[in-house]
Amino acid sequence: MSAPPRPVPYDPQLLAGLAAFRELVEPFPLRADTILASRAHFAKVMPSLDAAIEGLPVRAEQHRAPGPPGAPEVALTVLRPRDPVHGAPGILGIHGGGLVLGDRFFGAGELAARVVQFGAVAVSVEYRLAPEHPAPAAAEDCYAALVWFARHAAEFGVAPERILVSGASAGGGLAAAVVLMARDRGGPALAGQLLDCPMLDDRNETVSSRQFAGIGVWDRYANAAAWTAALGARRGTESVPAYAAPARAAELAGLPPAFLTVGSAEVFRDETVRYASRIWAAGGRAELHVWSGGYHEFAGTTPEAEVSRSAVAARDSWLHRVFAR
Amino acid sequence: MLQPVPFDPAVAAALSTLPETEPTAYTAAKLPELRAAMAAQFAPVPAVIGDRPVDHTEHIVPGPAKLAVTVFSPRGSREPAGCLYNIHGGGMMLGNRDMDTPRLVALVLELGVVAVNIEYRLAPEHPDPVPVEDCYAGLLWTVENGARLGLDPDRVVVMGGSAGGGLAAGVALLARDRGGPRLAGQLLLCPMIDDTDTSVASRQYAGLGPWPREVNRAGWAQLLGERAGTDAVSQYAAPSRATEFGGLPPAFIEVGSAEGFRDEDVEYASRIWAAGGRAELHVWSGGCHGFDLYAPDAELTRIALTARASWLQRVLGS
From the CB of residue A41, how many other CB atoms can be counted at a distance below 10 Å? Predict the structure, then answer.
């Protein structure tokens, strides 16, 4: 085994934010035997829904959608503008947390901000976590939420053809999976897929996955532990379905426009670049941004850095472009 | 037949107004005519600047080639400024430095930098390595004359679009390998770096878009002659040929998803990262080659220019 490749350095403006984020969410490393403790810690440090939407002109409602065949109902939080909307864009938001932790209120503040910014209606989905519920249970729950959202779009003032799927990290991987399901099953036509530092590939074999071993947040070892929780002995074998790890998809044609954004200094860099490249090779629409020196989730957790401001501006531009169509 | 990535709607609208050029027109015999027609479209420097507070001076890089250089400075600046050393595009066989005056004047105003715009000699009259060596000579002149030009020689970014992006990448490799100036960055806009024309993207844009595969092949053939596509091509001519990516200045690589250079540019960024280097990559959805020039009012152009300025602020400091 050769020495690990030299990592890409972090942007100096991100160093303090990286240290703080790591201290907040990974005070101890995520491993098979710390998943439940990590989940409990995460639940404790994440802001509540009320705190996330405080002061915003947004209403939160709780709903339940029929679950996937043979599975329980799926809990949903709908975030809508306080004033009624018509023909509005819709965002299905899928939270992150390595497929093993987090809940639908994680990231609700970000979703609520998009609701205000775009006059959109957002749905945040509570999906089942690994290892108790192996893949693709989570993706199936998210797909059930999408079907429910599309069916009830008019009740919320949403134009069904303006719904896009969005997620960061594990949520980005699940968003990509939901989009594949919608294509393959003749499901709802989607306006786009917003994949923020997405977790797409269970194999953990890229250069970037080896460069970020033991450094940063969500390093190689945490990623391996999470994928093993989701896939068990199947991880890295030929029997991993695309809905569990979208990098495994054989065919990436016929997908809605994608926005892929990732830091250059993180595990998911290369798999994100590869996913975009495969969409283009199939003649599909994808925008890719790899931000110099960005760590995993840098833009949301160090928003004051110049690179984060630029990343947010690019994302908002893409949202304007896809919602304008 | 490979399915191409579709153009952004605003880009497609802009492209539909362009006159068609036969790819077969890019022969050595036709180049003088094409160059003259192109040059006629570029406004002279004073007309581009208008009443905006930018000064410009003309210089000659000493040497047998007597290369012309235009230097743009923000009016009234006193502190040594960051510098953009610019190399124009045109497939190594076309264009002149006036084509980039609008882009440079805008950056001088926005960022308070000095811009140096080099007139290098073109192929096929001056085949490889003349263009990249001219550009390197101009860089050395810029750094040596930094004090009198009002620029900080430690804050020089080499930049260029298309062939200029390829030459900028080549200059960055030369500066590293010859122990030349320590560059603050390399801003590579849809850079032309791979003479093999073997990528998926290069095949998706055969006969399509403002810089189709056939024209690109003509450019490489003018620059490299019979060496094009063979193992005899230098990394300084076609930077995709480089094998060592350590020790390069931070890179900014921008390209459209709907153009022939997409994959070679993504690959170049990926190889810099694999070596532990600093690179930022933007692949704009539906952007054609040089989309910011063809569709200046598109949202895609607005945000692409924002991302460029953001990166330049990060590497040059404010």
Answer: 17
Which residues from chain A sit within 8 angstroms of residue B254, using beta carbons?
none
Q: Cα separation of A56 and A113, whole Å?
A: 8
Using the beta-carbon criterion (under 8 Å), do A287 and B269 form an inter-chain contact?
no
Q: With CB atoms and an 8 Å threshold, state whether B270 touches A309.
A: no
> Which of B6, B250, B284 comes nearest A292 by C-beta?
B250
Residues of B in contact with A211 (CB under 8 A): 273, 276
Would an 8 Å CB–CB cutoff place A254 in contact with chain B?
Answer: no
Domain ranges of chain A: 12-324
Mean pLDDT score of chain B? 96
Interface test with A, best of B202, B203, B208, B280 (most A CBs within 10 A): B280
Q: Which residue of B has its CA nearest to A260?
A: B283
Q: Where are the alpha helices (DSSP H) in chain A?
A: 15-25, 35-45, 49-53, 108-118, 137-151, 170-184, 207-211, 220-231, 269-281, 298-301, 306-324
Q: How many helices (H) and strands (E) does chain B have?
A: 12, 8
The C-alpha atoms of residue A66 and residue A171 are separated, in whole angstroms, by 20
Size of the A and B interface in Cβ pairs below 8 Å: 121
pLDDT score at B21: 72
Quick check: B25 pLDDT over 90?
no
Cβ separation A313–B307 shorter than 8 A: yes
Q: How far apart are CA B138 and CA B118, in angstroms?
A: 7
DSSP state of B317: -
Which chain B residue has the Cα nearest residue A257?
Answer: B285
Q: Is the minimum CB–CB distance between B184 and chain A shorter than 8 Å?
A: no
Residue B318 pLDDT level (bands cut at 50, 70, 90) = low
> Which residues of chain A from 82 to 101 reach within 8 Å of chain B, CB to CB?
none
ipTM of this complex > 0.95?
yes
Average pLDDT per block of 10 residues along chain A, 325 residues long: 86 98 95 97 94 95 98 98 97 98 95 97 98 98 98 97 98 98 98 98 98 97 98 97 98 98 98 98 98 98 98 98 90
When the candidates are 3.40.50.1820, 3.30.530.20, 3.50.50.60, 2.60.40.1220, the CATH number that belongs to B9-316 is 3.40.50.1820
List the domain boundaries for chain B. Answer: 9-316
Selecting from B201, B276, B311 the residue whose C-beta is nearest the C-beta of A280 gives: B201
The structure tokens listed for B133 are: 């060596």
Q: What is the pLDDT of residues A91-139, one digit of tens each?
A: 999 999 999 999 999 999 999 999 999 999 999 999 999 999 999 999 9
Chain A, 1 to 30: residues with Cβ < 8 Å from chain B are 5-9, 11, 13
- Report how far residue A228's alpha carbon sits from residue A244's, in angstroms, rounded to the nearest whole number: 12
Instruction: Answer whether B219's CB lies under 8 Å from B248's CB.
Output: no
What integer pLDDT is reported at residue B78 of this predicted model?
83
CATH topology classification for A12-324: Rossmann fold (3.40.50)
Q: How confident is the model over B291-311, as pLDDT tens digits?
A: 999 999 999 999 999 999 999
